[in-house]
Amino acid sequence: MNKKKTKISKEIKMNKKSARRNYSNQAGITLIALVVTIVVLLILAGVTINAVFSDRGIIKKAQDAQNKANESIQKDMNEINALENWLNENMGESNNDKEVNISTLVGKGAVTKNTKAVDTYGNKITIPKGFKVLAHGTEAGSATYTYSGDTIPAVQDGIVIENGTDGNQFVWVPVGTIKNKKGSTSTITLGRYSSFTATNGVYTPAQVASVENYTKAVTISDGYQELSTFRAGNTATNSTAQNATARNLEEFISTTLANGGYYIARFEASGTASKITSKYNQTLLTKITQPNAAKAAREMYGEVKENDELIYASDLVNSYAWDTAIIFIQTYSTETDASSYASKNKSASFANTGINNDKYCNIWDMSGNVNEWTTESSTRTFGSSFTPCVYRGGYCYTDGGGHGSYTSYRSGSITTTSFSSGGLRPLLYVK
Prior knowledge:
Elements: H1 2-53, H2 58-90, E1 100-101, E2 115-118, E3 124-127, E4 131-133, E5 160-163, E6 169-174, E7 176-179, E8 185-188, E9 191-192, E10 207-208, E11 218-219, E12 225-227, H3 249-259, E13 261-265, E14 270-272, E15 275-277, H4 290-301, E16 303-306, E17 309-316, H5 319-332, E18 359-360, E19 363-364, E20 371-378, E21 381-382, E22 385-386, E23 389-392, E24 410-413, E25 422-424, E26 426-430
Parallel strand pairs: 1-2, 20-25
Antiparallel strand pairs: 2-3, 4-5, 5-6, 6-13, 7-8, 9-10, 11-12, 12-20, 13-26, 14-15, 16-17, 17-26, 18-19, 20-23, 21-22, 23-24
C-alpha cells in the first residue's frame, strides 16, 4: 500500500516538473515570435513606405502619369485650336480679325500681333505688331485726343502709334465712311486730288484709288500728268530709273481700302539717309535725292512678314497718301482750306520736327519746313528741263513771296537733285 502511494507521489512530482518545463518553453517561443513579427512588420513598413513615397514610388509614378496625361491633353487642345484657326482662316473668320476696343490698348505695351480695333463709334483701325497706342497727353509733342471729350482716341483725332523698339511715331489716316458723333458720317476717299475744295461738303478726287486705276496717269490742275506705280526694275537703287516708284502701290491701295486706313509718319524724316526716324524735336533730314529718299523710307522697316505673309511695310509717301491726309485734316481740324494751310503762317525758318505751330489731327509739318519727295513721276518740265520726280507740301517761308508755301503744293525735280529745302516722309501700310 505504501509502495503504491509512494509511486503515485513520484508521478505527481514528475508531472509538475514537466508542466513547468512545458510552460517555460511555451513562453520562450511566444517572445521570439513577437520579436520576429515586429521585425517583419518593420521591414514590410519600410518596403511599403519606399514603394509609396520614394522617387520611384507609387505616388511619384501617379504624379508623372498625371503630368503626362495633362501634357497629352494640352497637346491635343493645341492641335484642336490650330485646326480651328486654320478652318476659321480659310472661312474668313480668323481669330486675328476679332476687333477690340481701342480704349483697352491705350497706354499699354506693344501688341504682339496685328490687332484689329474699333473706336467709340465703331470706326476701324489696325495696330501693327510691335507698336503701341499712345495715350492722351498735355506735354509738348504728346498725342492729344479731344474728339470724344474723354481723352479716349477716336479716328477723327488721328490715332498715334509708336514702335516699341525705336520710338518712331505714325498717325492713322482713316478712309471710307467715317462714323461721327450723333449718328452723322463723313466720307474720305483715297485718291489723287487736284482740288481741295468741297462741293456740298464732299471732296472729290481727280482719280479714285483702286487696283484698276493705280497704273493710270491723272491730269493735275496745271495740265501736267502724274503717275505712281510699281514698275519692275525701277527701284530706289537703280540709277537708270527716272525716279524710284512705290514699293507696291497696288498692295498699299488694297490693304488701305480693306483696313479702312493707313499710317503716315507723324513728322518729317529726321536721322540719316541710312536710318531715318519719325520723332519729335529732331533735326530735319534734307539734301537727299528722290531715289535715296525712297530707299531710306523702304528700309525704315522693310517688309515685315510671318509665314511669308505681309504684316506691314514701310515706303516713301505716295500722292494718294499725301492728298488723302490733307482731306482728313480739312475734315476734322480747324484747318479747312489747304490753300491757306501755309508755312508762312507757322514759321519763317527751318525748325526741328514738331516745333512749328503746324499740328492738325496729330500730324505735324505738312506745310512747313521742307518739301517732301513722293513716289510719283510726272510729265512736268521747267523750261527745257524734264523734272519727273514729284514732291509735295510747303517749305518754310523764307523768300518773301510764299512760293510753294502751302500743303497741297506739288512740283518736280530731276533724279539727282538734292536741296536744302527738300526732305521726305515715310508711311506704313498694314495687312
